[in-house]
Backbone:
């Protein structure tokens, strides 16, 4: 029964999202505790190789750690997490749920990601080599005992193929968290987001933090680009989130539309940005995450040292400054 419930989560149908704002209690099914108010738990973390930027490992304050809840992550040590279940989300994406001590939280801030590693052959000395990739969990940071990853499986992806080979009971080594943008409620009046493919991950993490906090009045405008309608990860979930609060607006665009497609067509354009994003302002922040080609077109790539680098591309042409843009 728990597995059936988890597969329903993969369909991204958070039926009780609005209950979060009425303080309703958690519901559980089998081994999964799913707080209805924590819709992030529905979809899991999405792989975002491109979100790996100048990582600063977050070291926990020892006194706070002792006084607060148990934390499952360790920024200095690889920890094994056991795979509990999997479910298919799209033709090339899967949802993975990992479990840990039911009294502990994972230990994520908004927005941060984790590192995962898997053995991949041996070096000249016969010692194991590892492939290491960052992923952004989007399960509720307050959830206890589990976290979810939504991963696009690429034919040549070393880590994603490793995940696809896992069976319930297998383990993955995880370290973190790695802090990205430190979000705080009402830090900006309006946040614009441009995401491509799995770059939706950090956006969703921030969106859900805003929507479940009734004291956070931040306006959010998301432009989400994909190859085709079938490639839009968690569209149903995103649509329900947008319907739940008036401060979230979403515009979808795809390269290969179907006959009945009603969204945008093609790459993110200046016209899309002008209509779908807040204009340049000290009270505006634009977040960008996606594949290298999209980053180059929208904001320019990050620097070689993975710092933010110079702002280029469409956003610079529209008058935004480096202080108004953050590249994941």
Residues:
């Amino acid at each position: 029964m728990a597995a059936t419930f988890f597969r329903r989560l993969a369909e991204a149908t958070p039926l009780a999202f609005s209950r979060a704002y009425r303080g309703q209690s958690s519901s559980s099914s089998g081994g999964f505790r799913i707080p209805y108010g924590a819709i992030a738990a529905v979809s899991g973390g999405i792989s975002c190789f491109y979100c790996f930027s100048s990582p600063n490992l977050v070291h926990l304050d020892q006194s706070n750690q002792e006084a607060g809840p148990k934390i499952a992550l360790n920024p200095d040590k690889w920890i094994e997490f056991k795979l509990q279940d999997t479910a298919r989300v799209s033709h090339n994406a899967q949802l993975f749920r990992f479990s840990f001590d039911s009294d502990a939280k994972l230990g994520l801030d908004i927005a941060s990601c984790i590192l995962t590693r898997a053995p991949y052959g041996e070096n000249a000395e016969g010692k194991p080599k590892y492939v290491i990739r960052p992923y952004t969990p989007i399960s509720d940071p307050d959830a206890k005992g589990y976290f979810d990853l939504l991963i696009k499986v690429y034919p040549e992806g070393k880590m994603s193929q490793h995940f696809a080979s896992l069976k319930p009971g297998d383990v993955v080594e995880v370290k973190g968290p790695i802090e990205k943008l430190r979000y705080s409620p009402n830090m900006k009046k309006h946040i614009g987001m441009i995401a491509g493919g799995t770059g939706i991950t950090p956006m969703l993490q921030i969106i859900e933090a805003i929507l479940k906090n009734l004291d956070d009045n931040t306006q959010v405008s998301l432009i989400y680009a994909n190859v085709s309608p079938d490639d839009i990860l968690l569209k149903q979930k995103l649509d329900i989130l947008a319907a739940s609060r008036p401060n979230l607006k979403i515009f979808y665009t795809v390269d290969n539309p179907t006959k009945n497609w009603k969204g945008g067509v093609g790459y993110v354009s200046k016209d899309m940005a002008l209509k779908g994003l807040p204009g340049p302002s000290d009270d505006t922040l634009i977040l960008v995450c996606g594949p290298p080609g999209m980053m180059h077109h929208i904001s320019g790539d990050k620097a070689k040292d993975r710092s933010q680098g110079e702002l280029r591309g469409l956003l610079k042409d529209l008058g935004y400054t480096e202080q108004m843009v953050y590249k994941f």
The domain at 46-179 is CATH 2.40.30.10 (Elongation Factor Tu (Ef-tu); domain 3). Residues 200-211 form the longest helix (12 residues).
